[in-house]
Structure formats: structure tokens, C-alpha cells
Design goal:
heterodimer; A: about 400 residues; B: about 1100 residues; alpha+beta; five-stranded antiparallel beta sheet; 48 helices
């Protein structure tokens, strides 16, 4: 007996949230998963090489086993994401967002301070970084908010911007400006995908840039943030950077040395100065790109960047195939999530923007990042492969 | 929302990719050389291979000074704390209790402490890391933390984990296994249980091994302490073996403190932008909340204060020891005109600018070939950092403070004044004086110019530079304190820490925080020298049992050793050999351009053949900082020949890796050792001469000898072959008798054989030369007599020049005058000389000229006084002529000049004296010039000189007759007035004429082989009662007789010499004929 797709669903609340049978398995974008998992495997290879190097140099900073464990632990999130039903997610998007915001609000109360910032909540197996979850929260809630509007009127902008701005502000207050900054391109991209005019967005971007420059110029930002900008401006040429290598540009210098040392073909796995001397801070997390660039060289790194961009394009392509607006926006948001992290992380390491700490998803170690990465990937391919009745306007547009 | 929306997004991403790849290309391909060089620098291990300095040997190849490969014991604190069980326990306990647990405190309970650490479980440590309490054995416990982050529980737990694993000697595999077990949540009762299970031992067996390791470590340290105490300074300090270990533990504590101090200083400097030593500790500690630093180092407030005090004292000391010489060197390197005044302004600005700015400014100035200028250094030390260092902010800035300190940099400072007047004005300003005007200012400026340009005087400048630096520092302290007070006034409550002090900004602390591990590793790895001359047993123990003495190591080094100095015997010829020293600041700074090029080449990621050649050239040219170079004596003069040049070895890979696996050798520039210097000296004769000078005898008649001089002799002895090879050149005192630099030269151990101190006339020892010259060039009739007669109440004299004989020698001819050393006769003879003749006489015998011992001409390091005024001698009246004839007043001479003149007289050839037979790998050629004195004249004089010793009336007969010596000598004594003491100044009488006394001659008299000169400086006994007895002592020495016997045995038969037709043989034949003629003439 066939049932109308618009008939009220029956079954347990769990089944309303996740369902195996609603996934059109043949339509799952296995290319996305294959590229993503390849990148993840490559990341593990580099972490393993770092661990080996640490073992050799009698250090214990990097732990491959722990990272592998994290991957194994968080990988189910991909499956869960794959099974999440669009309708449930759309209806529960406020819940997801509220949980993310509550977790952000909990950080100042129960969070752990590392490197001068309070960003983590300790959990039994790994430490949760709510700001990572907040990114997913922003994607989902923006998709929900943009689900019913095409941003034709000025007032249509208020809710999406407020929803994106709240977690962004909370994250920036931690302080974690880098993570907050990743939310900006996600938001802008989703607004564009939802119908915002390009020139309005460009105007917005220009406004943000001018406001940022003004904030730095007139000392509105934290002193350390202004100092990072100064450091960046003072280290645009190799000579300047080398001159300042033991001062505020220590991190930038170490990253640049590692990348530059790679040359055309790289130094080989685990053989770079980053692993040998281990002076590069955060080499297994935010600076892992520098390690990769050193060990694989220009050829390897360009290939890797291309692969990463391929993942983003595949995600955009997947999004473009989705008829349902909410799901399409979520998948787009996930693509933007990867793109923004890629460009910010790599730009920081290459010295194109001031130093800030942003992980490179699928490569950087860290449980929260992996969890959100897998979950968002699962959501992206899962939502795209779900057969869900939808009455939203996009469903009838084409 | 259509599909068309994705096109721009994808295009944007693709554009981003292009940008990233382009930038990647720029860094990885275009800038690869730069970054690869930097990377290589981070992991490159290069070491200079020092050259071996050439040895200095005597004529028979016996060592006088040589470089010996020796060892020194070094201590690396990081290795010790990581690998020695005692270090591991102490540091684990320090981490647990969050305070520095001392070695003395820990050693009493070492075994229980080690056991309790080993019995900890990973889960207990994990709880501790999160702020939980920790139960230790023996009822001890660490209380839970109220603020785990503040108390750095996680980092402390990680430290404890490391030390526990070190104590139980975890292998890498065991570490891996443990990590897996923890990851898999396997129940691990304790670390010791884990190890026992994995090694298939019982828990008690593992604990037993741990006990043995810990007690063994203490025993090893006790043994080491005893070995360290066996030699050197520690021996006196720890002659009681029971206290040796306690002493070593004290030293361990001191090294630990030193490392911690250095870590603290570097972290402070990196965070603050200036060193703690640049601020008064009272100001710094009262103003800054340094709890972050205390937490990193687990220090209490007292420890923090002690560190700040020490660093300040260190800076204060460095002003005189380092800053002033460095600034003086910079001034000297600046062009010798008013640009030196500008350089002084620049240097003063540099002294109060951030170090990184100074480095950059110096690089720039070096590139542009000019001194550093104040304009290169716009930022002020400390003052320009404060507003961005602390959380508190004041509305107005710090310009006032900076201007107060650096007002002299403003263009209007000293407008209208010339550069040196500006310097004078600045000096007055810094001294807090009213600025002088017009003539006073000009006079002061002129004085600066004079000492800094016209007639460089570091002695004059140094105190002024130091005063300016200290005055600038006082200003800095005052302004810093004022600004910190202002910041306090502006500070909101949350900008002050718990101790009500100014909080530092988080990024500054974070900056230091991210470098803690690096700094700790770097500073902990820097070795301390424990023992510079370790006994053999210590070296053997440390080399053979390296693992048991973790942290202690033996490192080879080159040491300059003086020959034959064993068993407390003094090094022969030490004063002549001179010494080694490190290059001074000026010399080092002169090489900075080359050094910059060398650094550039060393940093290059890859080098071609030309680069490598250039590297070798630079290593050959540049002195290593700390390299020992000859600074005085023969070591100094022959330094270019004795020195080689360094080599360089370089390997890629971290140093620890290179040590473990041998590394990869990339560059190997061989060092080139220096050449040996072969001297003409004979070690035995040198030693004999020194012994005689140190144990002098005088006239047996106590009324005639100078006991005061004998007790504190000052003088010299020279022995030489007749052809000019110096066999001995000895001087006393051999050791300083007073503190330099204010001591009189009488009390200083300096070479006197080549020097003219004060006024040093040769006296009557000069008479034979006057006589010989007069015979040939003035037509002196040797039979011409002069009456030497006492004049009532005034003693014997000739026109006022007194004779030694009170009643006169009567009528004397030349021979008698020489024999009895009659001053009247030689006063008369001197009267016959005009100035030009006197100069010619002096030049004939080489007086006033260098003796030739310096084969390479003028070089720094070894001084020979030659009295060049001899060439322009102008008599100023009769008295000077009379004195000239007697070798008094207007004539001066070194012992070696007298020696050379005697060689000439003895052989008819004036040799260039040699002290080096071979230098720089080549023989030093001998040379001699014919003496412009006829054989007849020489023989007349020689005959008279023989009578000086052989005739009972001769002035040396009492001590140097053939019966005394066993051979006949030809000699001449001499006493030259030095100065008359004022009445009552001497215990010996109301007025005493002090004099230098001499005796010079050769032996055997008729077959000269050895020339000798004995010189007593500043004595009251005449030569006949002083120097002759010293000469007797010398000539009776066994070493001298042995040398003479060897020479006699080696002398060729007359027929052989004649066959060669050598000038020497001709001279001998001439001399023999002349002697026969003279004998006939006398008859």
C-alpha cells in the first residue's frame, strides 16, 4: 500500500529524526565521501609521521593513536548525519541552535583555559570545543531562517544576520576571533545562495573590512589582535619576518620556514624541519598545513589544495542537485564551512592574512573539529540523498 | 535559489585556489632559497675545529710552550634532571609540590620518594592534572587544587609522568605500550606494576632495581664529588671527603638556579621587550605582577626577588666590563674627526634602545659604512614598552619621559654648537651640571677632541663613557618609576593582580608562554664548565661510565702548556715567552664585516665551490671569539707564525641527533695548525740564569754588598754565542711583587733584557767600546797617560767627573784605565769626542739600534727598546762629553745591546742577534756586519779586558779570576749612577747614590764562545761588589760548563777552518798576528 508522501508520518520520534529507509543510497554522493575520507586518511598519515618523528626525537607532543581513536570515535557522526531526515532537522533547527548557544554560554562558566583563551569543555573522552559546534548550528539555523525568505526586503536580513551574529559574538568573546571569522564567509555564502544580491553582499563585505580596519586603526580591538595585524604588516617580506623571528612573529616565521623549505617536491614524510626541530607551534592542529607543505612540496601541496577545493566544489555541486531549499542551504553551508576553513587556515599559514588559530578540517587533530566535520559531511550527503516531501517554493521552481 | 547561484561560488573558490597556489609558488619556489637557509639554520650543527698553536721549543727541541689536547669536565643540567635518578626525583617532587625541592632536602628520603613516585598510577596523575588530590606513599599527599589552571596542574602532572618513566627507565616501546593501554582504558595499578608486567618481573624486583638505581646514583655522585675534590679549587674547599657530596649537591643547586635564572630572564625579556636587569629590582617588583613567571618556574616571591637583584647586579657589572670597552671600540672605529662625536651620540642612544632595534641599526650602519646614529633608534628602552606591556592605560602617552631621557637626539639639542661642543654639553647635562658656555665649553670640547681624535686615550674616555651610561641609567630609572606610578594611578581594579600590582597584557604573557619549552631546553642544554683541569681518574670515570653520570661529560680542549712546569718548577723563560689572551673588543669589531659575510655563508642553505673557498678564506682570516692569541713576548711577536687557522665542520640534523647517530657531515674545512717556533735559547742555560738571578750572592764582605738588593733582586742576565744567538735571556723578578697596574716596574715581572727602564746607562762597561773606537778613529795612543789624582776634599776627578777611586789611580794609560776602570782617563777620552764622533762610536757597536732579535720588523706584542736618540746625540757641554766616555748619563743601553757590542768586540763582526732559529716553518737567517774596528784596536782592548779579571788590580779579579772559574775571561765591569736618594731616605746612610751595575764579557778569553752580560738594576753596591759576584755564581754553574764543554768538543780544528777560508778563520788569523805584534810593541 502506497502512502502519500504528505501523509503525517508515523513511528517513533527517533525514526522521525533519523531513518535508514529514507536515504536513497544510490543517490548518495559517494564522490564527496571518497574525497573527504581520502583527505582524512592523508591527514592521519601526516599525524602518524609526526608521531614517529616525536618518538625518534624523544618527544611526546603528538599522539597518533589518540588521533586515530578520535577519528574512530567521531566517524559515527558521519553516519548519523547521513541518516538525519531533512524535515526533522528543519523543525529541530532552533533546538540545534539553542544547544550550540547554550554550550557557548557554558564555556565561560565551566570551560578550560588553554593558551590564554577559554574555549574547551572537558568531556570524558575528549574536550569539546563548543565554537566548532556553533558553526554547524549557524549553518542549520541560517538554512532554517533563509528557508522562507529570498532577502528581497531589508527586514528579511535582520533575523539571519542576528542569528549568525549571536554565536559569532560569543565566540569572539572567548576570545577566538579566528573561529568567529570563519562564520563570516559561511554566513555571506549562505545569504548569497539564498538569493541575496551580489552587490549588496559586496557592500556588506566592504563595510566589514572597513569596520575591521577602523577597529584596528582606532584601537577598538584587543591589543593582541592589533598586534597580530602589526606583526603581519611588519613581516610581509622575508627580511622583515626574519628580523622579527624571535619576537611576535615567532609563529609566522616558523610556519613560513617550514613551507618555504618544502621547495618543489618537499622534504619527505616526517623529514621536515617542522618535525625535526619542533619549534613550529600547533603543528598538529592549526599549523598542520605548514607541515604538509614542507613535506610534500609545491607539487604535493598544490595537489592537496586542488583535492580540497574539489571537495568544496563537489559539495556545491551536490547542493545544486538538491531540490529542497532547506537541505540545499545546509549542504551549501557545509561546502562553505570547508571552504572558509581551507582559505583562512591556508592563508594564515601562507601569511596572506594575520595570524589566527583555525583548524584545517580533516587534517588537524582535535576531537571537536573532527566531530563537526564528520557530522556536517554526513548531513551534506545525507540531506542530499533523502527523499523528503517538500512544499517549499524551490521544489517547484525547476 | 537556482543552480546559477553556485557558479559564482565555485568561481570564487577557484579564484581562491589560484591565489593560494600562487602564494605557495612564491614561498616554496621563488623564496625557497631564503627559507631553506633559515630551515637549515634551525637544524644545522656546525662546529669550529680549532687549530693547534705551534709549539715553542729551545735550540735542542725541548718544549718551552705547546698546545696540549686536554679535557674539561662539563655539566649539562637538562641531561642531569632528565636522566639522573636524583634529578628525576627532585624535579618530580618539585612538580608535585609546586615548589623547588632542594637536592639536600631530597637526598635524605630518596628511596622512599622514588618508590612512591613509581607507585603512582596514570589515572591518579590524570586526576591530579585536573586539580584532584594525590596520595603519595608514607602518608604524604598533595592536596586538591582550587584552581587547576592557575596552579598548572596539567603541566605538572605531565612533568611527573616524564620523571616517573625516566626513573623506571621506560624504553620507547614501553612508552608506546603504556599510551595504548591508557587509551584502551586498561586498568593500570601503577607505573611500577605496568613495568613489572611487561618485563615479566615481580613488582618487588622492579622496586629493588629502582632502589639500586637511586642509591647507585647517589654513590656515583659521591664518587664523582671525591674525584672533583681531588684537584683544583675544590680540594681546599672540601678537604674533608665527608663534605664532598654535600658540596657537589650545593653546586647542583647553584647550576639549577643559574638555569632557572637564565630561563626567567629570557622569558621576561621576550615578553617585556627589555631585560629585567635594566630596571631597578625595587621598581620592577613593586610595579609588575609577575605571578605568571613565578608559576612557570614554581618560584616564590623571595626567589623572584633574588633573581631580579642578581640580574641587576649583572647589568651594573657589565657596564664597566663590557659596555664601556664596546663603546670605546666603536668610537675608535669611527673616522678620526667630528664623526666620532656623532658616533658617541649614536652609541649612547644604542645603550638605551631595545636590543632588537640596536641589532637592526648596526646591520644597517654596517651596510652603509657609517656609525650608528641616534636617528636609527627612535624607540626608547623600557619607556616605549610600558604602555603596551601592562593592562592599565593612561590617556596621555610617554613622550615626556622619552624626551627627558633622549633629549640630546632632538635636532635643537646643542643647536649652533660644533659636534664636540655638543658632546661637552651632553656630558654636563648628564652629570646634572649647569652647561658651560663659551670658553669653558670650548675648552671641554677641545679636551674631548684631543682624547678622542688627536691623541686617542681610552683611559681618559673610559670613565666618562661609564659615567654617561650610569647617568643615563639613573634617568631611565627615574622616568620609568614615574611612568609606572602614573599607570598605577590610571589602573582600574581589574588591571591589577591579586598582589595589587600591574597586570601584564595576556598576549605578552602568551608570547613568552609559547616559548617556554624552547627556552627551557635551550638554556638547560648550555653547559657549565665544572673542572678545567680534571685529574686522569675523573676523565676516565666519566668517559667509561657515561650513563651513570648523566649530565656530566668530558670535552676535549686545547690548553697552552709551558714546558717543564711539572712538580711546581717554574716555567723557564716565562717572561720572554709572554702570554696569550683573548682578542680585545676593538680587534673583534674590526672583523665584523668579515664575520657578517661568514655568518651569511654559514646560513646559506646550499653553497657552491666558490662559497666553500670563501668560507675557508674567512675562517683563515677571522679570529674565533674566545680564541687565544699571543699578546705579549714571543707568543705575541711570533703570533702569525704560531697561529694557524680554524677549520669548520658542519652536519645537518639536530645536535642531539648528530650526537646519537653521527649526523650527516656536509662540510669539512680542515684546520691548519700553526708552525713551531724554534728558539736559540738553551733551556739549561736559561734555567741556570734564572736560578742565579733568583738566588743572587754579593760580595762576601757584608759592608760592601747590597743586602736589600740581594733580598729583592731586579736585573737581567743575557748569554749568547759570539755569533749572536741568544742562549739565555733571564730577568728578575720572575713574579709580580705588587699589584698591577700601579706598582713600580721594579716590582713587576717583565723581561728586562730588551728594555730600557727609567734611565739605564751602561756605565763603565761601555769603556771598551769608546776605547776601541778612539784607537781607530781618534788616533788614540794607547800609551798616552792621564793623571788620576785625588783633590783635597773632593776625591779624584777629571774636570768634575769623579773616579771610583777616592785618591785616584795615579798615572794611567789605556790598558790600566780599562783594568781599574778609571773614570778620569775616560773622562779625558770622552773630552776628545765631538757629537758626530760620539754618534759614530755608538753606531759602530750598534747602540741605539734594534739588536735584530725581531726578524720580521715591527710587530705588536714583544717590545724591544732601542734608544733611537743615539743617532741624534748632541753634546750640551763638557760634562756630557766626560760622561759619554764613561758610559754615563748621555748613553743608554739594554743588556742585549751590550751583549751584541761585546760579540762584535770579541769577533770583529757585529751580529744581528737571533732568538728565533726557525719561525713560520723557515730558518731565520743569521747575519753579521764587519765591525769597523781594526784588529789592533780590538786586541788592545781585549787584552785590557782580560786583565780586568786576571790582574789582581782588575775590578773583577776578586770574583772572576781563572782560579775561581777554571778558565780565563775577558770582561768589563760598570756602575752607572741612577739616582741619589734624598737625605734620610735610606737606612744605609744619609745619602746613597743608587746605581745600575753591569759586567759583560766573554769566555774563554782567547777563544770566545760565550758572551755574557749581568745587569743589576738599582743597587747601592758597585759592580765589583755586586755584579761580579753574580757573574761568578753564573759562570760556575754546571749547566754553563757542560755547554762550554760541548762547544769545545764540537769546535773544528784550525786547519779545517782555514781550509774553508771562512771570514771567521781569517779573523782568527788576523787576530793572532795582531796579538803577536802587540806583544812585541809592549816589550
Amino acid at each position: 500500500m502506497s502512502t502519500s508522501p504528505f501523509a503525517r508520518e508515523r513511528g517513533s520520534s527517533l525514526e522521525r529524526a533519523v531513518s535508514l529507509r529514507h536515504v536513497r543510497w544510490l543517490e548518495v554522493d559517494w564522490h564527496v565521501l571518497a574525497v573527504a575520507l581520502s583527505l582524512c586518511a592523508l591527514g592521519l598519515v601526516f599525524v602518524h609521521a609526526m608521531d614517529e618523528a616525536d618518538e625518534y626525537y624523544l618527544r611526546g607532543d603528538i599522539d597518533f593513536v589518540k588521533q586515530l581513536e578520535r577519528v574512530i570515535l567521531t566517524f559515527p557522526a558521519l553516519l548519523v548525519g547521513l541518516l538525519v531526515r531533512p524535515r526533522w532537522l528543519r523543525r529541530s533547527s532552533w533546538l540545534v541552535f539553542v544547544v550550540a548557544v547554550i554550550l557557548l554560554l557554558l564555556v565561560p562558566l565551566v570551560g578550560e583555559v588553554r593558551n590564554g583563551a577559554r574555549r574547551w569543555i572537558q568531556l570524558p573522552r575528549f574536550d569539546l570545543q563548543p565554537s566548532e559546534l556553533a558553526k554547524l548550528g549557524v549553518i542549520v539555523i541560517l538554512a532554517r531562517a533563509l528557508y522562507t525568505t529570498r532577502l528581497k526586503r531589508a527586514k528579511d536580513w535582520i533575523v539571519p544576520l542576528a542569528l549568525a551574529g549571536l554565536p559569532m559574538g560569543l565566540v569572539a568573546l572567548q576570545p577566538d576571533l579566528g573561529t568567529a571569522m570563519t562564520i563570516v564567509p559561511i554566513t555571506l555564502g549562505m545569504l548569497y545562495a539564498a538569493g541575496a544580491r551580489m552587490r549588496v553582499l559586496f557592500g556588506g563585505v566592504l563595510l566589514v573590512v572597513l569596520l575591521g580596519a577602523g577597529a584596528v586603526r582606532f584601537g577598538v580591538v584587543h591589543e593582541y589582535q592589533a598586534q597580530r595585524v602589526d606583526t603581519w604588516l611588519d613581516a610581509l617580506t622575508p627580511e622583515q619576518l626574519i628580523e622579527n623571528k624571535n619576537g611576535t612573529a615567532f609563529h609566522t616565521y616558523q610556519a613560513r620556514v617550514a613551507i618555504g623549505n618544502g621547495g618543489w617536491l618537499g622534504t619527505g614524510l616526517g623529514q621536515g624541519v617542522a618535525n625535526e626541530a619542533a619549534h613550529l607551534p600547533e603543528r598538529e592542529t592549526d599549523s598542520i598545513f605548514a607541515v604538509i607543505a614542507e613535506e610534500t612540496g609545491f607539487v604535493g601541496t598544490s595537489g592537496l589544495l586542488a583535492l580540497y577545493v574539489l571537495l568544496v566544489i563537489l559539495l556545491f555541486n551536490t547542493a545544486s542537485q538538491v531540490r529542497e531549499r532547506f537541505s540545499r542551504l545546509v549542504v551549501t553551508g557545509v561546502g562553505l564551512y570547508f571552504a572558509s576553513h581551507l582559505f583562512i587556515n591556508v592563508s594564515v599559514n601562507l601569511g596572506l592574512v594575520p595570524m589566527t588559530g583555525v583548524p584545517l578540517p580533516l587534517f588537524s587533530t582535535g576531537g571537536s573539529s573532527l566531530l563537526v566535520t564528520f557530522l556536517s559531511l554526513g548531513l551534506a550527503v545525507g540531506l542530499a540523498a533523502h527523499r523528503e516531501p517538500s512544499l517549499d517554493e524551490d521544489a517547484f521552481r525547476e | 535559489m537556482g543552480r546559477g547561484r553556485f557558479g559564482p561560488l565555485i568561481a570564487l573558490v577557484a579564484l581562491g585556489l589560484v591565489v593560494l597556489v600562487a602564494r605557495l609558488f612564491q614561498i616554496q619556489v621563488l623564496e625557497h632559497g631564503v627559507w631553506a637557509a633559515e630551515a637549515a639554520d634551525l637544524v644545522r650543527s656546525g662546529s669550529v675545529v680549532p687549530f693547534r698553536r705551534g709549539a715553542i721549543v729551545d735550540a735542542r727541541g725541548r718544549d718551552l710552550a705547546y698546545d696540549r689536547r686536554t679535557f674539561q669536565v662539563e655539566f649539562c643540567y637538562r641531561d642531569f634532571r632528565r636522566s639522573n635518578p636524583l634529578g628525576a626525583v627532585v624535579h618530580a617532587q618539585s612538580a608535585l609540590f609546586a615548589r623547588p625541592v632542594g637536592y639536600a632536602e631530597a637526598i635524605g628520603e630518596l628511596v622512599p620518594a622514588a618508590r612512591s613516585l613509581a607507585s603512582l598510577s596514570p589515572s591518579a596523575l590524570a586526576t591530579f592534572a585536573k586539580g584532584g588530590g594525590l596520595a603519595l606513599g608514607g602518608g604524604r599527599a598533595v592536596a586538591p587544587s582550587s584552581d587547576p589552571e592557575l596552579e598548572q596542574c596539567a603541566a605538572r602532572a605531565a612533568d611527573v609522568r616524564f620523571y616517573v618513566q625516566s626513573l623506571l627507565q621506560f624504553t620507547p616501546a614501553e612508552r608506546r605500550e603504556l599510551r595504548k593501554a591508557i587509551a584502551n582504558e586498561r586498568e593500570i595499578v601503577s607505573y611500577v606494576d605496568f613495568v613489572a608486567e611487561r618485563r615479566r618481573q615481580t613488582r618487588d624486583e622492579v622496586l629493588g632495581e629502582l632502589d639500586a638505581a637511586v642509591t647507585g646514583a647517589v654513590q656515583d655522585l659521591a664518587r664523582l664529588a671525591a674525584l672533583l675534590s681531588a684537584e683544583g679549587e675544590r680540594r681546599a674547599a672540601r678537604n674533608d671527603p665527608a663534605t664532598a657530596l654535600a658540596g657537589l649537591l650545593g653546586e647542583l643547586e647553584a647550576w639549577r638556579s643559574r638555569v632557572e635564572d637564565e630561563v626567567a630572564s629570557e622569558l621576561f625579556a621576550r615578553a617585556a621587550g627589555f631585560g629585567i636587569g635594566r630596571l631597578d629590582p625595587r621598581t620592577a617588583l613593586a610595579a609588575f605582577d609577575l605571578e605568571w613567571l613565578q608559576r612557570v618556574l614554581a618560584w616564590d616571591a623571595d626567589r623572584l626577588a633574588a633573581w631580579a637583584e642578581r640580574e641587576r647586579a649583572e647589568w651594573t657589572r657589565s657596564v664597566a666590563e663590557w659596555s664601556v670597552p664596546a663603546i670605546l671600540a666603536e668610537l675608535q672605529l669611527a673616522p678620526a674627526d667630528e664623526r666620532r662625536a656623532d658616533a658617541w651620540f649614536g652609541e649612547l642612544a644604542a645603550a638605551f634602545a631595545p636590543a632588537e632595534d640596536v641589532v637592526a641599526a648596526r646591520k644597517r650602519a654596517l651596510r652603509e659604512e657609517r656609525p650608528v646614529a641616534p636617528g636609527d633608534l627612535p624607540r626608547a628602552l623600557v619607556l616605549d614598552e610600558l604602555d603596551s606591556l601592562v593592562e592599565a592605560e593612561c590617556a596621555d602617552g610617554f613622550a615626556d619621559a622619552r624626551d627627558a631621557l633622549f633629549g640630546f637626539r632632538r635636532p635643537e639639542f646643542g643647536a649652533g654648537l660644533d659636534p664636540w661642543e655638543r658632546v661637552a654639553a651632553l656630558e654636563a647635562d648628564l652629570d646634572g651640571e649647569a652647561r658651560p658656555v663659551d670658553a669653558a665649553l670650548a675648552a671641554r670640547a677641545a679636551e674631548w677632541r684631543k682624547h678622542a681624535v688627536d691623541d686617542w686615550s681610552g683611559e681618559w674616555l673610559a670613565p666618562r663613557v661609564e659615567r654617561a651610561l650610569l647617568a643615563g641609567d639613573a634617568l631611565l630609572q627615574r622616568e620609568a618609576a614615574r611612568e609606572l606610578d602614573r599607570l598605577f594611578a590610571c589602573a582600574a581594579p581589574d588591571e591589577l593582580g591579586a598582589t595589587r600590582k600591574l597586570l601584564w597584557r595576556a598576549p605578552r604573557i602568551a608570547l613568552a608562554g609559547e616559548q617556554v619549552a624552547y627556552v627551557q631546553k635551550d638554556r638547560g642544554n648550555r653547559p657549565f664548565v665544572v673542572e678545567e683541569a680534571p685529574p686522569y681518574e675523573l676523565v676516565e670515570t666519566l668517559s667509561r661510565y657515561r650513563t651513570r653520570f648523566a649530565g656530566f661529560s668530558v670535552r676535549p680542549r686545547e690548553e697552552r702548556v709551558r714546558g717543564f712546569d711539572a712538580a711546581g718548577e717554574r716555567t723557564p723563560a716565562a717572561l720572554l715567552l709572554g702570554g696569550l689572551g683573548e682578542l680585545d673588543m676593538l680587534a673583534l669589531k674590526r672583523q665584523r664585516r668579515d664575520r657578517a659575510e661568514l655568518d651569511e655563508l654559514l646560513r646559506a642553505s646550499s653553497r657552491d665551490e666558490q662559497d666553500t673557498r670563501r668560507l675557508a678564506e674567512l675562517f683563515a682570516r677571522i679570529d674565533r671569539p674566545g680564541e687565544k692569541r699571543g699578546t705579549s713576548g714571543l707568543e705575541g711577536y711570533f703570533d702569525p707564525e704560531l697561529s694557524g687557522h680554524d677549520g669548520y665542520r658542519e652536519s645537518r640534523g639536530l645536535q642531539e641527533l648528530a650526537e646519537r647517530d653521527g649526523g650527516r657531515r656536509d662540510l669539512d674545512l680542515e684546520a691548519r695548525d700553526g708552525h713551531d717556533l724554534v728558539l736559540t735559547l738553551d733551556l739549561d742555560l736559561q734555567r741556570a740564569a734564572e736560578w742565579v738571578l733568583e738566588h743572587p750572592v754579593g760580595d762576601p764582605d757584608p759592608d760592601r754588598r747590597d743586602d736589600a738588593w740581594l733580598a729583592r733582586p731586579v736585573g737581567a742576565i743575557v748569554l749568547a754565542t759570539v755569533d749572536g744567538d741568544v742562549l739565555a735571556a733571564a730577568s728578575v723578578p720572575l713574579e709580580d711583587r705588587a699589584e698591577r697596574p700601579l706598582a713600580r716596574h721594579h716590582d713587576l715581572a717583565v723581561d728586562r733584557t730588551l728594555r730600557l727602564f727609567d734611565h739605564q746607562p751602561p756605565g763603565s762597561v761601555f769603556k771598551p767600546f769608546v776605547a776601541a773606537w778612539a784607537l781607530d778613529h781618534l788616533g788614540l795612543d794607547p800609551t798616552r797617560t792621564v793623571l788620576c789624582q785625588g783633590v783635597a776634599g773632593d776625591g779624584a776627578n777629571y774636570k768634575g767627573l769623579h773616579c771610583a777611586s777616592t785618591y785616584g789611580h795615579g798615572v794611567v794609560d789605556l790598558e790600566q784605565a780599562l783594568k781599574v776602570s778609571c773614570n778620569c782617563y775616560f773622562a779625558w777620552l770622552g773630552e776628545q769626542f765631538d757629537s758626530a764622533q760620539a754618534v759614530a762610536c755608538l753606531q759602530t757597536f750598534g747602540f741605539g739600534s734594534p739588536t735584530g732579535v725581531k726578524p720580521f720588523g715591527a710587530r705588536p706584542g714583544w717590545r724591544e727598546d732601542s734608544w733611537p736618540q743615539a743617532a741624534t746625540l748632541e753634546f750640551q757641554g763638557l760634562r756630557q762629553r766626560l760622561s759619554f766616555g764613561n758610559g754615563l748619563a748621555v748613553v743608554q743601553s739594554t743588556p742585549l745591546q751590550v751583549t751584541r757590542a761585546l760579540c762584535g768586540l770579541a769577533t770583529g763582526e757585529l751580529p744581528a742577534m737571533r732568538i728565533a732559529a726557525e719561525a713560520g716553518g723557515a730558518p731565520v737567517p743569521k747575519s753579521a756586519a764587519p765591525l769597523e774596528i781594526s784588529p789592533r784596536a780590538r786586541q788592545l782592548v781585549i787584552r785590557a779586558m782580560q786583565l780586568v779579571a786576571s790582574d789582581p788590580k782588575g775590578t773583577a779579579h776578586a770574583a772572576l779570576s781563572e782560579s775561581d772559574l777554571g778558565f780565563e775571561v775577558a770582561v768589563k765591569t760598570g756602575s752607572a749612577d741612577y739616582k741619589a736618594l734624598p737625605k734620610g731616605a735610606s737606612a744605609d746612610g744619609p745619602t746613597k747614590v743608587r746605581k745600575h751595575t753591569w759586567i759583560g764579557g766573554w769566555l774563554p778569553a782567547n777563544d770566545p764562545k760565550l758572551v755574557f752580560v749581568v745587569f743589576e738594576f738599582d743597587t747601592v753596591a758597585t759592580a765589583s761588589h755586586g755584579a761580579v759576584w753574580l757573574a761568578q755564581e753564573l759562570l760556575q754553574r754546571e749547566e754553563l760548563r757542560a755547554w762550554l764543554a760541548a762547544q769545545t768538543a764540537a769546535t773544528p780544528e784550525v786547519g779545517e777552518d782555514a781550509a774553508t777560508g771562512s771570514p771567521a778563520a781569517d779573523t782568527s788569523a788576523d787576530d793572532a798576528a795582531t796579538a803577536a805584534n802587540l806583544a812585541e810593541e809592549r816589550r
